[in-house]
Write a structure and sequence with these properties.
With 256 residues, the chain is mainly α. It has one domain. The protein is built from 10 helices and 3 strands, in the order βββαααααααααα. The chain has a 3-stranded antiparallel β-sheet with strand order 1-2-3. α1 packs across α5. The longest helix is centred in the C-terminal third of the chain and has 34 residues. The protein is elongated and about 60 Å long.
Length: 256
């Protein structure tokens, strides 16, 4: 006898043998969706405010300049990076919620939801990597040479910026899933799909970062840092709000 297995239905889960709809725990979806705001607030507080990485230390700084930066803010940077490492994993929890919503938008056999969740996981790994690099630069700084500290500092920024394609593909998959949603009233507004494309496209300028230490393409530059960071965090905040709205729409569909 063939065993019953659940298959995805647009409003939740449907048992393929009985046709009975299984209940989706939308409360848990909402709880996990709050991981997004927790990540944004935690990351910005610990990385930007406490560790004072905004504005970023200029790319053209000498080893002595970098060493002085870590010595003068040593405890703050260590505490800030501990916070980054603590709050970083909340990003992939939120990404998991987006991935589940996207399955309802593209259908159970789609691949975009997998690209999205893998992009979220890899972005989290990148966040943890830069946190470890900068924590290493601030750990026993006084016992290291300025060149050693600069190496760890540079590694953190290169890991932060040069891996932009991971998040680019995550955003591209999410934006595409919005635009292919065939609902009369889509789960996410169509304009958010195009805005997601725009936010992802801005990050493409980072490919020039290794070749400039001054100007808009350096890691502290107008395009590479300020425009890209602003685009990402504005996109994230808007999408996090829209995520709760989308969950409400799915819950209404499941109950109808």
């Amino acid at each position: 006898m063939k065993s019953a297995s659940p298959t995805i239905a647009w409003g939740g889960l449907m048992d393929s043998s009985t046709g009975a709809r299984q209940t989706t725990n939308f409360l848990m979806w909402r709880v996990c969706a709050w991981a997004g705001p927790v990540f944004v607030v935690g990351f910005l507080v610990f990385w930007a405010i406490l560790a004072k990485f905004v504005p970023p230390p200029p790319q053209y700084w000498s080893a002595d300049d970098v060493f002085r930066f870590y010595m003068e803010r040593n405890l703050q940077i260590r505490a800030g990076m501990v916070g980054v490492l603590f709050f970083g994993p909340f990003y992939f929890v939120w990404s998991a919620v987006l991935s589940r919503i996207m399955r309802h938008m593209e259908g159970p056999d789609g691949v975009l939801s997998y690209v999205e969740i893998l992009g979220g996981v890899c972005t989290t790994v990148i966040t943890l990597g830069l946190g470890v690099a900068w924590l290493g630069a601030s750990f026993r700084t006084e016992a290291r040479t300025p060149q050693d500290v600069q190496l760890l500092h540079d590694l953190g920024w290169l890991y932060f910026d040069s891996t932009f394609m991971v998040t680019f593909l995550q955003l591209a998959a999410f934006g595409t899933s919005i635009l292919i949603d065939e609902r009369r009233v889509p789960l996410f507004p169509r304009w958010l799909g195009w805005a997601t494309y725009a936010a992802a496209s801005i990050s493409l300028v980072i490919v020039l970062m290794p070749f400039f230490d001054h100007g808009p393409f350096a890691w502290q530059g107008l395009l590479t840092f300020w425009a890209d960071m602003a685009a990402f965090f504005v996109w994230a905040i808007v999408t996090m709000y829209a995520t709760f709205v989308a969950i409400g729409k799915l819950e209404k569909e499941a109950g109808s």
